[in-house]
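Dock PMV; give full complex structure.
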Amino acid sequence: MTVSSAPGKVYLFGEHAVVYGEPAVPCAIERRATVSVEPRADDHIRVTARDLSLDGFTVEYGQSPDERPDVDVPTPLVEAATGYVDAAVEQARDAVSDPEAGFDVTIESDIPLGAGLGSSAAVVVASIDAATRSLGVELDPVEIAERAYQAEYEVQSGQASRADTFCSAMGGAVRVEGDDCRTIDTPNLPFVVGFDGGAGDTGALVAGVRDLKERYAFAADTVETVGDIVREGETLLADADADGDPDEELLAELGNLMDFNHGLLEALGVSSRSLDNMVWAARMAGAHGAKLTGAGGGGCIVALDPTPETETGLRFTPGCEDVFRAELATEGVRVEAESAVGARGDDGGEAGERDEGAE
Ligand code: PMV
């Protein structure tokens, strides 16, 4: 059994605009997806998922289209989870030059699904690392990031930037502009995350921004202005002392930029009532700034506050289902456990899970 994990992320600035070549700064957070992989003797993939906003499920299938699984949990959710694992397995097969490699894959995650915290990127990154390692191939994080991006690109029909996957593979704060991806130094930013319990449809939200941008010059200008905010923000970060805690002045300036960024995302139609409520609750509680993170439409906001006030404020905000402090994850993808190459463990079955094996 080979076990790898990879972190989720929050966007300090720049989601959506990054799809059109503007820079973005996502930061990895200490909420991780953990993927266990066992090579199989046949070419099947068996996926067991827990904690993906679903009751646990297991599906097993081979490579031909008529072997797609028949399951009794809502199909779009299963397709979402298995689609990413499928694409990750394809990348792993390609990396180890074995198109017929089969795997038992078990996913556990403490990152809410589709909520703007990069859950799918973390699952894809950790899956590629664990699957390749299970066959004796160790990829470097930059190659894992690139392969994970290709996997997301395919599943999301081309509506994906490199931001989530690069951030999850590398850890820390990163800057992504087109295919120029680099890690950057940041002080330990005091992130607080509020979660409304929901999820957004990334594909539909990205398509909505694209439509607006094509229709109105001022929407295209808005996307470019998000890029200006990111450039301003990265200058602040570059001038800051990366060791230790940020000073109040830096937090106030970053917070202003986050507020501005949220306003523009709202204008681009990707916020929601619950996200706006949480953003305002965080600001009223004294956060330096707050914005939605990720695709929007529902899911999470991120605020900057070193004090407990924002957490308390959000806890009492109607529509906010969960609040937590999110430490910057300095480590990206990492191996958690590794056994001898090709060793077979148990069959991955767990008490209490449904086995929907379809062969
Ligand atoms: O909601 P998430 O975590 O999948 O982030 C989506 C970010 C977008 O900029 C909207 C799309 C992308 O691939 O960069």
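Observed: Residues 15-16, 18-19, 116, 118, 160-161, 163-164, 202, 206, 294-295 surround PMV (CB under 6 Å).
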